[in-house]
Amino acid sequence: MEDKCTMVISGSQLMSYISDFTTICWFMEPEFQEAVRRLHRVVGNAVVDDRYIVVGTGSTQLYQAALYALTSPGGPEPVSVVSASPYYSAYPEETDYLRSGLYKWAGDAYEFDKNGTGPYIEVVNSPNNPDGTLREAVVKNRGDEGKLIHDLAYYWPQYTPIIRPADHDIMTFTFSKSTGHAGSRIGWAVVKDKEVARKMSKFIEMSTLGVSKDSQQRAAKIMGVICDDYKNFKSDELFFEHTRRVMAERWERLRQVVDRNQVFSLPKYPKRYCLFSGELIEPYPGFAWLEAKEEEEEIDSQKVLRGCIKVQGRTGSRFGVAQKYVRVSLLSNEEVFNQFLERLSTINSISNGH
Ligand code: PMP
Q1: All domains of the chain, ordered by start, with CATH?
Q2: Ligand 1 midpoint to CA 58 (Å)
Q3: pLDDT tens, residue by residue, 110-139
Q4: Which of 87, 95, 129, 131 for a ligand 1 pocket mutation test, highest count of atoms within 8 Å of Cβ?
Q5: ipTM above 0.90, yes or no
Q6: What is the pTM of this model?
Q7: Ligand 1 site, CB within 6 A
């Protein structure tokens, strides 16, 4: 993008806590809100008309804000929080970290569907981290007992076909995955219900008294440049076409190595029609979800990668499944990715390492 995204903030700008006291999310910069709505309209991945936007310090903060907003004090038991395994490893950790009396982690949503009772919150992560699948809620509708949080961090065209504009009660997105700016710590929620948006904003007010305005302004700038390019078709290669091409190339090379050494297997993803590109396309998740081919359930694939080729993955057991699975990020820079493939290509047997 060269200098197109550069912005200058002078020493006297953006000093106040407040952005707009007339709105529910009073610490959200109006430019940020506008940019978020515009980006969703350009991509077509979420319904934003007549919806509330809440900004957070990453979607991590918004997850906690949503748990707070969906529960209320005084219940006999904490509300069960579930997600279908393999689930994003941070959900159990974030849910139980403060030992809230309002909610508690209750594990795999499939198990809860079979045996669980009482009020619950299901987190639906689509496309799913770690395995890249597009998902729907698992627990059968139980009237008023169940609430949903849709974590759509990876629902962007470089990772997945955009199959419909998502339209759920609470949807969270993040600057970390849409453009890769994880260091800015910016996320946002698209919320249908005013009271839920108000409670989520209150949580953020109580925990961090707002969200960095510098970061919100930078995010607005970058999103604006991306959208302007789509409006004018100015660039040689537009942002999501470029990033999708990078992901496609990485996946092609990864599959070649994995097929060649026959030690691990990768999920196969069906092609789906993408409304954004107008083509049938394959998903290119941000992670390689590797499964050891050897039958033995005991195999610890994280240990194998670490021991044999000094690559740090995250074990399946952190995602609620067997340790023969391991997740490796594919979103590193080119040099690290090349190193990963080079080393992976040297493994030809799990039992004796090399
Ligand atoms: N949800 C999912 C599924 C993620 O993979 C991540 C980041 N790894 C997050 C949420 C949190 O992202 P952030 O706090 O950077 O917005």
Answers
A1: 30-231 (3.40.640.10), 239-344 (3.90.1150.10)
A2: 7
A3: 999 999 999 999 999 999 999 999 999 999
A4: 129
A5: yes
A6: 0.96
A7: 58-60, 88, 125, 129, 151, 153, 174, 176, 182, 187
